[in-house]
Model the fold of this input.
Amino acid sequence: MHFYTSNMLRHIAFLKVHKAGSSTMQNIFFRFGLKYNLNVFVPNTGNFLRSRYQIIPLKGNDHYDIIACHTYYKNFRLFNILPSDAVKIGIVREPLSRMISSAYFYRDMSRFPYLVRVPDSKFINNLVNYPERFERKYFSFTRNAMARDFSFPYYQPSDKAHIQKYLNKLNEEILLVLVLERFNESLVLMKRILNWRLTDIIYLASNTHEHEQVFLNETEVANFKMTNFLDFEIYQYFLKVLESKLQQVSKGFNEEVTFFKIVLEKVSFFCTDYHQTERQTLVIEGFDRGDDIIVSETDCKLMQRSEQHFISSLRKNLLRLQR
Done:
């Protein structure tokens, strides 16, 4: 039996397109699934859905409610994991900051060969200035990565009409695309669209992979925009879509965003220092009457749980249900 608030949208496919932001969103969706006893999909191996053979079948006529693991947009329909009424949620980030963050992360943490080969001195500058030497692929983790994850064809800069048509198609098929640079506003908007509660979107800011400061001159920025033109088209398009939606929100939205930021500060302090206080739970009077926010030590640990740990735990639960 699934328990959820009346009219709450709970069949959700979330497209992860970068580390920062998407990992936080994944944690939000994983926790939502646990809270409301939903079937959250994770692949039987790894954390990236590539093959139909990675799907753990559910017993009887049961179905998955949420997918928030790494995959490509085309796989949502190809593998047909969720019910037909499932909504799609995405997130985008300013392309240059996304690339810099990903380049350091995948070089230092994942040791991707093509990034390890780039000289350490002026690492990002070399990657930007000499793509023919270090990054020849049209799509990679640091080149048009958002376009790859949204399953864009191999368009060229001159294919403006085709690019616009594909973006319009995505906008019709995806209920909401959040923007990392407007993250809290995006989350509150998502909460209203999905008819969730404010407590369902609370998160703890995760520590990003630290790296040296990067300086690019105008020519280098222009070079990057040329080789990553699809990601810039995507970002500018969905930023405008989000801004248009934010202009149409109902009364009280800005006040709710402000309240949400205050809640995040209180939750962050509580989850950092709960072991030093006598309080076992944090209670915050809700923005809406009768919707108080209650955060326990268990909630803090779930918000701090890593992607690998969360996926491993969910996978064990799924496999146990199949016995």
